[in-house]
Batch of 4 targets.
Target 1
Amino acid sequence: MKDLARLNTPVGIELSGDLHEYIDYFLGSYHGGRNESFIYGVVKGEFYDYDLPGAYPTAMAMLDYPDWDSREMIGGQNGDELFSSLNYDLIKSYTALKIKFEFPSTVKYPNIPVRLDFSSVVFPLTGETFCTGHEFLLAMRLGCRIKILSGVYIPFKNSKLNSKLKLKSNSISNLDSNSNSDSNSKRKFFVQDHLIKQLFELKYSDKTFDSIEKSIYKSENYYFLKQALQQTPVQTEIEAETEAVTEAETGESNFYLVVKELIQERVKHPKGSYMNLLYKFLANAGIGQMARGLNQKVKFDVRSNSTKPLPSGELVSPLYAG
Amino acid sequence: MNGQENDRENYKIISCTTDGFISDEPNMDSKLIDSTNVFSLLYYNMRLKLTGVGALLETKYIESDGVIS
């Protein structure tokens, strides 16, 4: 999107196909990076700074081109209804929602961003805001009550894996037909997580079902999982269908291939060397280029000795950035 | 804080960013390996595909005492 500002003009709207109908949702749900302190002042003791390794390029590698022809407008339903219809397909999609939400008071770290003013984003227990499909999913896992006011769902072009998962999770959803309790909702999530874990771990490691079961056993979620497995043949289904998951179904989009190539080039050079750092920078800069200029930030321009709005560029897309 | 120290009982995660957090809980990088959370699994497996190493978290720094401002 080379010229974001011109999109919001009569000519821009007419020339942009259907994009103008959805772009405000994606712009609204792009909040930028989170940076939040839960306490302030003097802290005593030993503290550990944990990071996701290669967070931005890894997230970028999971992207794919949007399947515009399969887009759906969303609105009017509650969170449970949306989850029942799309569930983990939301992971492989560009989804932007306008929602009203309320977390249980026991949730210590709510995850839904709400814009406070022009410069601040907060993460309250209740509110009304725009959010992405991923943020919606995580909030649902935390027991959040959500009302979808409106939104748009655009699946990835390559979402075969999720279709398969959807079929499976639909059969799990049937378990809950006679109940609407919190424990049933939690059970559904945990069974689906368990199912995905099996699909991936069997593919990428030599762990057996036994070892996976042991790790689940240790988990605090075991109670729900055990309940679910006792009431459904889902475990047998998983075993039967896992073999059908092939390499192609996990998807290797162009985003993945670019990130993979940059990582392969980087490791050819010694750690800390100029070329190693350059390829690291290129991988990290990719996602930044997709978000450049979206929030109309101003930047000091040394040539004109004044501040100017940061222009967007050819790689910019509010879908990818969010 | 008016010069007062924070109550240690409240510690767990003292701050977070999009791609990390600071905590007084040691060894969280190894504790999360067995997570059954769908987002953890997706991340773990994508790292495994990209780099051959499926780590979920890495410890960047360890610090003693400080001021959060």
Note: The two ends of chain B are 10 Å apart (CA to CA).
Target 2
Amino acid sequence: MATVMPEAAVFQGLSWNPLTDVQQLFTYPFMVNALAAGTIVAVMAGVTGWFMVLRRQTFAGHTLSVIAFPGAAAASLAGLPLAVGYFGFCGLGALALAGIAGSRRSLSAESAAIGALQALALALGFLFVTLYHGVLNGLDSLLFGTFLGITTQQVVVLLAVAAAAVGLVAIAARPLFFASVDADVARAGGVPVSALGFGFLLVLGLSVAETSQITGALLVFALLVTPAATAHQLTARPALGIALSVALALAVTWLGLALAYFSIYPVGFYITSLSFGLYVLVRLGRALGRRRRATARLALRAA
Amino acid sequence: MTAMATSLRPDTGSRKGAAVTFNGAAVRLRGRTIWSDVSLTVAEAAFVAVLGPNGAGKSTLIKAILGLLPLAAGTASVLGRQPGVAKGRIGYLPQRHGFDSGTRIRGVDLVQLGLDGTRWGIPLPGSPSRKRDAARVAEVIELVGATTYARRPIGELSGGEQQRLLIAQALVRRPRLLLLDEPLDSLDLTNQAAVAGLVRRICEEEQVAVLLVAHDINPIIGYLDRVIYLAGGGAIEGAPEEVITSETLSRLYGAPIEVLHASDSRLVVVGQPEAPFVHGDRHA
């Protein structure tokens, strides 16, 4: 076999020559699929994550990601493709969350109900894994992600779902922004605030289902929240913020996949660490900037 | 409690030129009648304060004008249409507690939302409509005097600065009617008078009728045309010096009320049946 393959196709490890290293990344079809899937997921997570952070719905987003885990476990148990479990459970989870939000109790009652749902989801996931008996091929990859074995068909499904979701967000961008920032005024102006909230939860459910397939259910936040939260720290301009959120998600995904390819550590670890590192850097930078401005003001006053 | 509604001085404007007309109107919320038999007229380009104790239904009146709450009885006409029909020609600023310091939205984007926040799809950058929108946003921000801080995140601004930007947002579509629900709450006295002066100027320059819900008439009385006083399940409408009197308010409350003129020319209302209420007092 090895004799048929071109020389570059042999895994060589890190050569420290950027050109050959990048070339190497695109040699194997599994890696090309992983990069394509990662790119699609990063764009979608960057867009929906920006709105999720704006709407302060990260707890709902986290719950959806926990719900993704029993979804994948149930699909394994039933012998169905994992994607069916991810999309099915996250869709149902979004409906449940919309129901909780729609009942309009106090904010604390709402978060308590979401928390209860989250605990149930984790317990169900564990039950399905136990029922599966045999070695569930990679419980850890359900929870913490993998980039191995992504098929071209999976990439096509990811692309179709992401295109639909991003397209919907683009169509509703301004009313959704309005409803997120100023629900009362938006409602008075004729924006269907409740319908948009419901629709956004569904799109968020789709995003979580997609992201779970790369980062695993527990590390969805690395792509969905951290790049978006970093973008919100960097700029208050909406269009620029969304672009930054997507760019950061893409950067950590590509870098994370490359690092995982050249090392023995899982991709979820790299993506999470990279986005966390960026977030901390930006927060530190902003804190330093504020302090410098404050000192400058004091100096000005003293002068 | 006796419900009543009296127009002490027939409005100078003709009925056709009215921004808002209520005729024997009533609103019920969860089985409780908030107010009933309310008849009033707000003339075009008039500056009207909506006053009354807590729970008298001031915000309810605003929501009824917006068409967000249905009338249980009577009729209403808003800009010549049924309430809720002329949405695009009404600017609305709801009662709120301000944006917290973590809100990373620029004032200019907030004002822009007042213009295009209800439109679907994404405009092409550099299109003529986008340039026109940007020019209108800049114009209205200039009008409220917020140009210097409109590009900073709104959470970092003071209450008065936030309020000016929100008024700009309500004004950006050139409404014929502006509904401001307690815009002076949480502002200090100087800022209350400054914002009231701004609203007066807008009223005249933009020819827009304004209903402003307020706790305290004193910082704004010099700028007002008319007053709507809600209490005791009814409402009274008229010029401020006619409405805020012992006789009129006693009739409205159905109980003896005294309006005192303090030495600093402030008006103080005492003797309300529910709880002693002094204008300017903040009830929690």
Note: The helical segments of chain B are 58-66, 107-116, 128-143, 159-171, 189-205, 240-243, 246-253.
Target 3
Amino acid sequence: MNVEYHAERKIEIDGWPVNLASYRIGEMFYCRADNVSPGAGIAHTQGATREEAEQKAIARAKELLGRTRRREI
Amino acid sequence: MADYAHPEMLVSTEWVAQHAKDPSVRVVEVDVDTNSYQEGHVPGAIAWAWTTQLCDTTRRDILSKSQFEKLMSNSGISNDTTVVLYGDNNNWFAAWALWQMNMYGHKNVKLMNGGRKKWLAEGREVSTDVPKPAAATYHASGPDNSLRSFLDQVQAALQGSSHAMVDVRSPQEFSGEILAPPGLPETCQRGGHIPHARNIPWGKACNEDGTFKSADQLKALYGGEGVDGSKPVITYCRIGERSSHTWFVLKYLLGYDRVSNYDGSWTEWGNLVGAPVERGAALAHPAAKA
């Protein structure tokens, strides 16, 4: 089987830029969210549709990014 | 890829599509997210988990020589196998694996340029079959510790200006604004960077599709920060994987012969009692173009 419908888009969550990459493999859609800087994956989800996979990834990313503390320097 | 100092260290996704099942080739996926492999991978590829198979799970260290030999043997890799590594996050942990394979003397190991990201974006074939290679005989050499910097070597380098130090983390990690990449657990007590380090985030070496930038672009990037190969270079990040990516760029794409990876990185330095720490954003290097 081949990877299908690969797409990427950038959004912002709690002030952090996030890259969403989603695609279909077989019957499932997958979504990976990474913090654009430095580019580390923070959520990796799946769903029956792209929308479902993305919404799960966004929810998880929001939860994790909400814990990130910014310090004064 | 022809302008790189060692173009033989890279293969394209197309090359992998053509050769992944050659008997003399073993393709290995090494991801940050160890679940990625299960959803679909390069047909014929096996997987290594960085959390359990590419480190000593008791003490914080890379694999011992005997552990490395066992991993190679169980992966069906002999000393003359061509190993092609790829993974997510533009090959972060694939580069970490390549760095260890270099330390233990494997002669023929390469990265797939663009990693998993490019393979997926190109809509290539993937498989969920997990190959079970027959065990092979493997004899490691080394370890070649010239490719690795330990804490005492970094501390010694700090005393003079004998080395170039490259912090490959994000600007916010470098400045001390955050202690870990956004969304990931904090693993240190203090934020900031090793004094005099230059901040050249690893991702600046990559194009949008995950492949490496051209040799000229890389020379300009690192040379603009005074990292031109005239001095030994020490790379570091948080736990040593992003810095192995930059180590690969400097050693094999630009051909600097004295590059070592400080895998203790900020998780060690930022927890060290009494260690000197600088905070704040990177200042422009005198070599940088106005």
Note: DSSP finds one helix and four strands in chain A.
Target 4
Amino acid sequence: MIHAQNLRKTFGDFLAVDDLSLRVERGEVLGFLGPNGAGKSTTMKMLTGYLLPDAGQITIGDVDIAVSPRRAQSLIGYLPEGAPAWPEMTARAFLQFIAQIRKLSGKQADQALSRAITITELQPVLDQPIETLSKGFRRRVGLAQAILHDPAILIMDEPTDGLDPNQKFHVREAIREMAENKAIIISTHILEEVDAICSRAMIIDHGQVVANGTPHSLAAQSMYHGAVTVTLNATHAEPVRLALREWTEVSHFEEMARGDEMSITVFPVATKSTDLLNRIQTQDGWAVNSVSLELGRLDDVFRRLTHSGATSDMGLADQ
Amino acid sequence: MSYLLAITRREFSSYFASPMASVFILVFLLAIGLTTFSIGNWYEAEQADLSLFFFFHPWVYLFFLPAISMRLWAEERRNGSIELLLTLPIPLSLIILGKFLAAWAVAGLALALSFPIWLTVNYLGSPDNGVILASYVGSLFMAGGYLALGSALSAITRNQIIAFILTVLVCFAFTVAGLPMVLDVFRIFLPDMLTETLASLSFLSHFQAIKSGVIDARDVVFFASVIFIGLTITGVIIDLKKGQGA
């Protein structure tokens, strides 16, 4: 549904997007990750026709956006960064205006408004000017305008930024429900969001794709993948440390204290994760609170891939 | 057409969402009344016509219309809604035209609200209402010219004050271009042909012709051309700024 090939965009001497390609099909939610200035928003602006790429091609549905930008834009629901709107309008008037622009009228418009308002839970603030709304409500107004025409493609720049945990939960639920019959791209800084709603994640840095895969496959590239984490009271840690230093299955271990409790992450020598897990679980005399096998940490992968100069040796990009 | 109507209506109502446009209109009416009656000594002139009233229009417009046009694009840039607007499936030309028409409608409303002076002059004497109507039409077209220039200059910046100042300066240049004292200065270093071209760009001289009661196609075409060029430049600036990510 969304197909971008070899996109390139420069602003003066600054290369914002460099030979970036992506493809998102119906039913997929692509999480777009990257540090500030990596090119996420620029890519989204190109995908929605706000910016023209210097090179490359974008197809939305079966429409080349360079040839028929309006047709392509009619297929897209877009939540720009910061969820901009016209602050003096009430949420209702704003959504009614968007309905007009989306060619919705009469009963069809009423149904679309009702659906978007229900999903984003905007009912209590509908007749308030947008400038008087909290950041969370403003974001939801932006989300409502993006989904109003039930688009086949949704592109959202940080859709849960500024929402409280309950609101985040609702918005994620809504995205998950809509994902079945839409192609969705969201950019986010919140890595837990990727796990929560994305079927695929793409990490970009310096305008290039440095990783692309399912959240699990990316997390598995983490140094923590296969490590065993033990939590225990700090006063009980010394015998564990002594034992771990002797074990041949252990490559090294890291400790992290949180008040009285501490966690020890134990890194096995190659391919010995399950042996190590079994041995720890069956160890007598250790007063541990929990033992778990690490599937990997996306934040670790993110840090290593987007840390200057560290991208080339990870070999994660599959495009 | 429905796009154009939706954009114009939204923009027009946004002018009145705060008291600002109402205040501007009030100030316009006060200024035009003050200049006509106080500076122009309308009563002492003892002429039952509105030539004095229209004489001051370009000068009052110089400040009133940039105040109306300054927000057209600068505000969109400042609050980021330009990105939303330009990613909706509406041709840019209709967005530009719709916003311009809304600003023009505000100017038209202000002009229409000056009707008490028309009633007064009809009460006091027997003016040539044809000339008055032509003057109103001319004034409205001239306002369109100022607003189109203001639209282009508003597209340059996200700061409304900068947009206002730039528009006042540019509109001032277009207004005084035809004044003899200005042309005399240009004649010193410009060939006659260029000086005449400069004079032909003057809002004052084109408005002067219309307010004498003759709506000449050339004057109407002049203001229509200024509007067209101003709006076209607006589109070019928006496209250029988009390329720079602004």
Note: Chain A touches chain B through 34 residues (CB under 8 Å).
